[in-house]
Amino acid sequence: MKSDRFKYIKQLTILVALWLCAMPAIAQNGTNIKVFADKKNTAVTYAMSHALHDWDGTSRDVSSVIIFNKEAQRISSVAVLIKVSSFDSKNANRDSHMIEVLDGIKFPQISFGSTSVTQEGMTLIVAGNLTFHGITHPVSFRATQKRSGNQITVSGDFEIKMTDYSVDPPSLMGISCKDWIKLTFTAVYNLP
Amino acid sequence: MKKRIVLVLMSFFACISVISAQNDTIKKNVSQVDTTNLLADLTAQEDQKPQELLPEKMLVTQRLLWGHKGLMRNFNRFELTPDERARELKIRRTMLVAHQVVGFATLGCMIAQGFVGSSLYNGNMNKADLHESLAGAINIGYFTTAGLALFAPPKMMNERKGYSSIKVHKILAVVHLTSMIATNILAGSLESNPKLKPYHRAAAFTAFGSFAAAMIIIKF
Fold it and tell me: CB–CB of B109/B137 below 8 Å?
């Protein structure tokens, strides 16, 4: 009877020991921190093309936040929010036209939320949902991240089609712009 | 005894694999949930001030019609609300497209008038009627083009800093509007004072040159 109890205690001790060994691996999930982008150094630029000319517009009023895993030293999630009216193409008529084309009064914001962020060296493969003109579509792109002390700079670009988001390409002199918009971004995050 | 140890170990690894699988699922879900929460955080941080519907600065003609207390604001259909302002922007677009089309037609008439006017200037008086008809068409086209821009609902924001093609377009508009008025005044005085012909011609060519340049500059 005593030896049976001893065996049980022994087995229980082994199990607890094994559990304790496994705890660090299980607990790794709890080191995520939220880091907001440094707005002064963060920008998103769109580039468009028309038969008469090409142009771009930049927003320096970009709100972005990442979830950074301190243990793994990697970004696990990212979200971005930009006001349509914050894009400046150095031409107020054109910017106003863009607000009109994008129904910027009804849908004042463009947002992106990641669904997965995979790191390959210094390259991030980001997949997520882009909401633009009130329509959400999945997008994926590659971004480059640079680490300098506690600062992470993420930059990259990707293209979207306006018609995918039910936006009629704007026209000038009766000629429509090309359907593609190239979005280029640079975001700086200062880790605490 | 050995069997028991194997059983204990197997149950442990089974537990670990279940936890690990759960963890993966949690990780994926965390990413999804986080993003939604993150966007909510960003939205909360954003300036909650409602979007300005009118620019601070606009043309006098636009302010008269479309300003906060403009004439059009007396009609229910043109109240200054986000929905109505969105509709106003569509009206603005239609007017500006018409501005471009009528402007092109006017430029065509101006080119034709250049040939007819030069022929008349050199003494070929049998084209006087055609010159007058073309002048009428140009005046109608020109002032319609100007009106479509001057009375269109205003854009959404103030002018940007620095030079842009649209700013040069507007500066050239002042030049060709002045030249057009001068051309018409001088045309009316030609019968009583034929010596004014060269000035009429110079004013007309200035109007044409600056009008054409205002169109070309949009390319840049």
Answer: yes
Helix (H) or strand (E) holding A151: strand A151-161
pTM above 0.80, yes or no: no
Dist. CA A95–CA A70, nearest whole Å = 40
At position B155, the amino acid (one-letter code) is: K
Asked if the Cβ–Cβ distance from B159 to A92 is below 8 Å, we say yes
The one-letter code for the residue type at B119 is S
- Which structure tokens are listed for B11? 């149950």
- The residue to which tokens 């059983």 are assigned: B7
Can you read off the two tokens belonging to residue B126?
A: 């049998």
Over residues B118-151, the pLDDT tens digits come to 888 887 888 888 999 999 999 999 999 999 999 9
Of A75, A44, A40, A79, which Cα lies nearest the Cα of A59? A44
Copy the structure tokens of residue A18. Answer: 């094994």
Tell me the residue type at A191: L
User: Per residue in A31-43, pLDDT tens?
Assistant: 889 999 999 999 9
Portion 22-61 of A in contact with B at CB < 8 A: 22, 26, 29, 32, 34, 36, 52-53
Task: Transcribe B113-177 into DSSP letters.
Answer: HHHHHHHHHTT-GGGHHHHHHHHHHHHHHHHHHHHHHHSSPP-SSPPPSS--HHHHHHHHHHHHH
CB count in 10 Å sphere of residue B131: 19
Say if strands A171-172 and A87-88 run parallel, antiparallel, or are unpaired.
unpaired
**What three-state secondary structure class fits B117?**
helix
Hey, CA dihedral for A104, A106, A108, A111, is it positive or negative?
Answer: negative
Instruction: State the complex-level ipTM.
Output: 0.71
Taking only Cα atoms into account, the Rg of chain A, rounded to an integer number of angstroms, comes to 24
Q: How many residues does chain A have?
A: 192
